[in-house]
Amino acid sequence: MIYKDGFYYPSDDFKNNANIKDESIYKKAQKDPIKFWEDVAGELFWYKKWSKGFERVAPSLKWFVNGKINITSCIFENNIKGWENIKNKVALIWEPENQQEETKYLTYSELYSKVNKFANALKNIGVKKGDVVAIYMPMIPEIIISMLACARIGAVHSVVFSAFSPKALNIRLQDTKAKVLITSDGYYRRGKVINLKQQADEGLEGTEVEKVIIAKRTGNEISVISNRDLFFDDILEKADEFTEAEVMDSEDLQFILYTSGSTGKPKGCEHVCGGYTVYAYWTGKAVLDLKESDILWCTSDPGWITGHTYVVYSPLLNGATTLMFEGAPDYPTPDRWAQIIEKHKVTIFYTAPTAIRMFMKEIDEKIDEYKFETLRLLGSVGEPINEEAWIWFFEKVGKKRCPVVDTWWQTELGGIAISSLPGIGPFKPTMAGRPLPGVKVKILDDEGNELKVGEEGNLVIEEPFVPSLLRNVHNNTEKYIKTYWSQYGEKIYFSGDGAYMMQDGMVRIIGRVDDVIKVAGHRFTTGEFEDAITKHKDIVECAVVGVPDEIKGFVPVVFVVLNDGAVVERETLENDIKNLLREAIGPIALLKKVYIVEDLPKTRSGKIMRRVLRNLFTGEDLGDLSTLANPEVVEKIKEVIKNQ
Ligand code: WT7
């Protein structure tokens, strides 16, 4: 890498080999973004070409109107790299948590065969185009096979992260009205067996699920309900070898993926076939510089959007090899992730700042023993990366040789929207980089005025947005409009992030301006925590805020006001609250601390001022307290924080 005036640029060697190396792409895309995306779409296989590139049908939008496509045909028989070229190469490397077990390798044709058979198995139990299939599975090859099999027959998958609680699964199953759930007997987490089937069974209560398919992984004892429960391998074995890919309209649903809502109810982001396929393909090609020879390790669980796009769809659309690791990157030893990179000759490593900060802390000295000779590109995603972590990643993992792409995007966007391109640059620690060619990002104040260079404001995307922008919130168009299209009207997509832009178009993401907290890269809202916590019989009201944390970025703390006369130990209360959160969301909803206070700071209209509470931790100015109805509580809360 070349360093000049505070910026890094790719070496000539990297640049010459990069998929995108010509700066002129930005100008070209800027001039006519719709044409730009049509050209990209034209690289892929379509059953029928679209008649119009982009159409705004407020509050939604359409891309590649009337085009016909199937993402699995673009991955397999019509892959851009040529089926003959890729069919015998490895599509998926699966590394088990237990090092005594064997790695699994699936070539493109082996994966193709399993996907076809499982697609037929789904058909055999009555799954049709447009039906929703819920997937609640750990990081095993069957999760990828399941997703692709759904896509093959035009069923809509809705993946629910396996660490979500039965209650969280239940809410999603109710909302999608899924008739089929695919799960596993269990999974390994740090050597321990978690009985996932039991959790699935609890989550099924009161839903319309008629069939449950179980992949065997851990062999733990599970309860099986005859006529309802089937085994993955059994039905796959019995199914026919080939199934024709369903010809999908560009705007047919590809999948629904939930993200935290501002209350207890999550938002089901709807992604569609045409735009998602094009965007997953292109962002992998341009930002991750994916080539046939690459082995990409994206550490996300497929249960998140990062896993959907960069573990499953994008690498396969680009004819590359994707690596999925079953376990936690620091188990059983802190350098397990480093061993995996070397063992499997990973070329692109895409992970989250929270993981990087953990690696940094756990194996700082030992890291020099690893040469990481095969690595050529590093990526970061999910939250702002601090300078120290960026430099460590760049120097100790990338050995100052690999570009580091800091990629900004969201579940709603389906793929990366801001990041410098690795073959062009520039890169600067803490700067996500430039918006991708064809993506019109602006920074606006609350009234919608465009801000000047360096001024902090709200990050928005202007028309024509990106081809894979969500089309709706499932069953809740009102929420869709309110969340994304109300702040600035229907022509401007509001991201919920604060940011500023530099002269050269580089964007610095500051963090959320709404009620979202990113904890170790996972997205929660204060509302969903608060909804769960106020269920406690002794709690009248509460306020959750995210406070900065060295490793996790932010961690939630809660301020609770107790019922008059409630007598409860703080420790007992803390345990109760943690249990409530585990029940409502899952073990990932980690709470840092509980503070019992007399009252919460409120405006005269009764709105809780979370900003004041947050600033008590960050040391930022508390702002004008005279707008509070009860400014005197602030001092009292300070005392409580000090004494605990
Ligand atoms: C939110 C979206 C993007 C897929 C994984 C997370 C934050 C994401 C970055 C980045 C700073 C980032 C934003 C965004 N975020 N990437 N590179 N720099 N912040 O998807 O769970 O939907 O969360 O994650 O706040 O809005 P998500």
What's the quick description here?
The chain is an alpha/beta fold and about 650 residues long.
Report on this model:
With 644 residues, the protein is of the alpha/beta class. Helices cover 31% and strands 24% of the residues. The protein has 20 helices and 31 strands. Strands 7-6-19-18-20-21-22 form a 7-stranded mixed sheet, with helices on both faces. Strands 9-8-10-13-14 form a 5-stranded parallel sheet, with helices on both faces. Strands 23-24-25-26 form a 4-stranded antiparallel sheet, with no helix packed on it. Helix 12 (305-317) links the parallel strand 18 and strand 19. Helix 6 crosses helix 7, helix 6 packs across helix 10 (232-238) and helix 8 packs across helix 9 (196-204). The longest helix is centred in the first third of the chain and has 17 residues, at 108-124. The chain is globular and about 75 Å long. The two termini are 47 Å apart. The mean pLDDT is 96. Bound molecules: 5'-O-[(S)-butoxy(hydroxy)phosphoryl]adenosine. The site of 5'-O-[(S)-butoxy(hydroxy)phosphoryl]adenosine (WT7) has 21 residues, from helix 12, strand 22, strand 25 and strand 26. The site of 5'-O-[(S)-butoxy(hydroxy)phosphoryl]adenosine has 21 residues, from helix 12, strand 22, strand 25 and strand 26.
Defining key terms:
24% strand; 644 residues; binds 5'-O-[(S)-butoxy(hydroxy)phosphoryl]adenosine; 31 strands; 7-stranded mixed β-sheet; alpha/beta; 5-stranded parallel β-sheet; single chain
What is the approximate shape?
Answer: globular
**Rg computed from alpha carbons, rounded to a whole number of angstroms:** 24 Å
Mean pLDDT: 96
Distance between the termini: 47 Å
User: Helices and strands: which structural class?
Assistant: alpha/beta
Strand content: 15-25%
Helicity level, as a percent range?
A: 25-40%
Count of extended strands:
31
Ligands, ions, cofactors: 5'-O-[(S)-butoxy(hydroxy)phosphoryl]adenosine
Q: Spatial order of the strands in the main sheet?
A: 7-6-19-18-20-21-22
Please give the largest β-sheet.
7 strands, mixed
DSSP helix count?
20
| Unreliably modeled segments | none
